[in-house]
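Sequence, please.
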């Protein structure tokens, strides 16, 4: 049996980056992936959804071209088959880029289903297809899968092709006349934004009384209004009780209603993939179905690490990237720890949302002495120049005791691109007076941060 310094199970963002960094550092590394390298993020999540959303953005611009003095565009439509083909091309290019990086870093790649059989004197025994390998160290990066709860009719209609998860929706070659989205979280909202732009009648059925889960309340409400303007209908505080082949039944305020649907998207969260990989054979601890890790990404078992969605902490690809690096640094004996308080999050709807850190509410709950500054995005010249709907806002949360930022919540164009600037200010604990000395390019939308800083 071939002995590796590190065997990585799973080739998504957590797995491929662990393998790449470990290979770069000289560890003899094997990465085993059962489907496609790139994982959910690249093949059926983050990247495909962004290709869809960009087509919708082009379409939205075209259909509002007259507002910008551009006449003669007419009523533009989307060729959904082309959108899917383009998405496939983008995915193919990026997947081959990842494989190239792994190869350059001398990582061995194997496409097979991995199973941990146990431990020998040399290391952990991993079976992959017909072969067996010995691993001195293990990285579990098996990711997550869409939750499909036992709602009557849901699974049957998933099998029948009426209900979709992120996987099926991102391969859909036609635009359904009606789409019902179960769950008003990130996946649901991004797809609601896309399909309403391209012509579907979209209804989102959400159990809570607000959309976008932990997103700051005012930002969430602006996002809801902007999606409503596009024609998305929201049923909030609505519990789905059954799914039929032509619609979704839900209960709201004690009344039962049915909303008709040609297609239904189930996006009510994801769960860690921890079954069927032999974790029990080496005694890895789980909590609520996810692998328990410490801030060095170690599990309870010596030389076994876990990163990405499988540890259930923050299911975002960029969290996985950083966790992968923390894990490899620790394998190499370099001190590094994972901090989860400054992880930005982006919702790529149009308009997009960028947030990081505390909200006023969460900071108060922690007993911090804080203040909030909120300004309209119209303080940015470029924002006004480029948009016709001007209801975006930028909120900053300041810790009065330290005179530093601890949160930012922005809705408006490019928010997803420049939220990282605030993350850096929070992470580096830069004093507000020093932030005031930073020069922002003018005119940009990111200047909104500078404007807000001067309101403190
Ligand atoms: P989510 O956890 O973001 O949202 C699920 C929503 O479904 C919640 O609002 C919840 O209240 C609701 N819900 C649960 N059960 C329900 C029921 N029976 N009826 C009605 N509503 C119900 O999950 P989502 O959107 O599936 O996303 C999964 C993961 O993927 C998340 O961890 C997310 O962070 C990640 N993701 C991130 C993206 C980004 O960063 N832009 C894009 C897409 C996904």
């Amino acid at each position: 049996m071939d002995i590796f310094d590190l065997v990585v199970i799973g080739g998504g963002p957590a797995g491929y980056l662990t393998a790449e960094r470990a290979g770069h550092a000289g560890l003899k590394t094997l990465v085993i992936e059962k489907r496609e390298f790139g994982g959910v993020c690249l093949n059926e999540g983050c990247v495909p959804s962004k290709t869809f959303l960009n087509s919708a953005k082009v379409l939205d611009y075209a259909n509002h071209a007259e507002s910008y003095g551009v006449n003669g565009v007419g009523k533009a439509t989307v060729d959904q088959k082309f959108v899917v083909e383009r998405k496939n091309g983008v995915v193919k290019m990026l997947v081959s880029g990842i494989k190239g990086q792994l190869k350059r870093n001398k990582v061995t790649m194997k496409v097979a289903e991995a199973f941990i059989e146990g431990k020998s004197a040399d290391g952990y025994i991993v079976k992959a297809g017909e072969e067996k390998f010995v691993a001195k160290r293990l990285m579990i990066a098996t990711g997550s899968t869409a939750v499909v709860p036992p709602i009557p009719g849901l699974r049957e209609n998933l099998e029948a092709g009426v209900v979709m998860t992120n996987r099926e929706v991102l391969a859909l070659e036609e635009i359904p006349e009606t789409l019902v989205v179960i769950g008003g979280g990130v996946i649901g909202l991004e797809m609601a934004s896309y399909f309403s732009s391209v012509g579907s009648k979209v209804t989102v059925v959400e159990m809570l009384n607000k959309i976008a889960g932990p997103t700051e309340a005012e930002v969430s409400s602006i996002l809801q209004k902007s999606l409503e303007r596009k024609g998305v209908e929201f049923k909030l505080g609505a519990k789905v009780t059954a799914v039929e082949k032509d619609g979704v039944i839900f209960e709201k305020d004690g009344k039962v209603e049915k909303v008709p649907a040609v297609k239904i998207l189930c996006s009510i969260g994801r769960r860690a993939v921890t079954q069927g990989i032999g974790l029990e054979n080496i005694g890895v601890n789980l909590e609520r179905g996810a692998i328990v890790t410490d801030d060095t990404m170690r599990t309870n078992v010596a030389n076994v690490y876990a990163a990405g969605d499988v540890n259930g902490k923050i299911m975002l690809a960029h969290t996985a990237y950083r966790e992968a690096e923390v894990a490899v640094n620790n394998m190499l004996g370099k001190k590094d720890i994972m901090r989860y308080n400054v992880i930005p999050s982006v919702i790529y709807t149009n308009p997009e949302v960028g947030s990081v850190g505390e909200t006023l509410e969460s900071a108060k709950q922690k007993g911090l002495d804080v203040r909030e500054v909120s300004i309209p995005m119209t303080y940015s010249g470029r924002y006004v120049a480029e948009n016709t709907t001007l209801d975006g806002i930028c909120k900053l949360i300041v810790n009065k005791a330290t005179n530093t930022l601890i949160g930012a919540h922005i809705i408006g164009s490019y928010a997803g691109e420049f939220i990282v600037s605030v993350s850096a200010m929070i992470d580096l604990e830069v004093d507000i007076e020093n932030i005031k000395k930073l020069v922002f390019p003018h005119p940009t939308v990111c200047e909104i941060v500078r404007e807000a800083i001067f309101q403190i």
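The chain has three domains: 2-146+271-340, 154-268, 351-453.
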